[in-house]
Amino acid sequence: MYSSPLFTDRDLFVLNNDVLRRIRYTFDFSDDKMMAIFALADYKATRAEISAWLKKDEDPNAVVCKDKYLALFLNGLIIDRRGKREGPQPEPEKHLTNNAIFMKLKIALNLKAEEVLSIIELAGFAMSKHELSAFFRKPGHKHYRTCHDQILRNFLKGVQLKYRRSEEGTSPSVWK
Fold first, then answer.
1. Which residues touch 8 (CB under 8 Å, ≥6 apart)?
2. CA 20, CA 10: separation in Å to the nearest integer?
3. Average pLDDT, stretch 107-122?
4. pTM of the predicted structure, to 2 decimals
5. I want to staple 125 with a disulfide (CB 3.0 to 4.6 A). Which of 13, 37, 93, 154 is the partner?
């Protein structure tokens, strides 16, 4: 997890780059759409940066997508889907946890707890509403719970199953 002092960039690479790849694949975002989402969060991402972040883990030209850039992308995704909020825009987190990634995706997709649970069930994983709410509490709250990689990956898999276009034309992408 992110809180480990032994956490390396390579570990970060697997999750942040994977989140970026899965979101792009799920919603069939083009390079131009990816750059536009970053721009909504006031970051001018280049096609080369995006390409390097999206390369497979084993590719020697792949580059780690640092927390700041994933936070910028997720903030842009929220703005893309929900519009810019009044007042100053949130600063991108320098340190992103699975809980924060999960929360930002939940906000971007405008999901209620029941919808999140049904998406997770699509991936063959089940949890209670109380377990889910613990992920969205502030650290330090007595019921706060760390979101482990398995939970986030199951959520991302469920999102893909719900939103990704299939060959039969069902579940069309809601974002272009």
1. none
2. 15
3. 96
4. 0.85
5. 154
